[in-house]
From TrEMBL:
GO terms for cellular component: post-mRNA release spliceosomal complex; U2-type spliceosomal complex. It comes from the Eukaryota. This is 16960_t:CDS:1. It comes from Funneliformis caledonium. Residues 1-37 are annotated as: Disordered. The lineage of its organism: Eukaryota, Fungi, Fungi incertae sedis, Mucoromycota, Glomeromycotina.
Amino acid sequence: MEEASKQRKERLEALRKRKLGNEPENNKEEVKEEGKNEKLPLKFRNYTPINEDIKAISKINISTPKDITETLEKTDLFNLAPKKPNWDLKRDVEKKLAKLDKITQASIAELIRIRLQGESNENSTVDLVDAINAQQKADTDGEVSD
């Protein structure tokens, strides 16, 4: 067991040396030097710093109310508001409802015409029926031309 583990360790070391170009110590030092030159910003996610200098650094990144008002002016609030879940259904149904409204108006006119013809004992009601018929013909002629 021990011999197998030693052989495996040797193979892994040889593989590492091949990958790193046979200079593992120099490459590690270069990586460390590059890391020292870069300064990463401090992020305090899990705790509040006690040192006053560190607190000052962390407060630099906090946005001011001026920045917030500028972004609010730039954004359109109507685009941010969510649409109702059935807005597309209403849009699709409006076309069908327009057709049904025309049919409803025609049937109401027909019912009025029938009622007036039933009571057509007087001449004034006959004139009203003729006026309704003329209006309906004008409406249908206008719809056909559209």
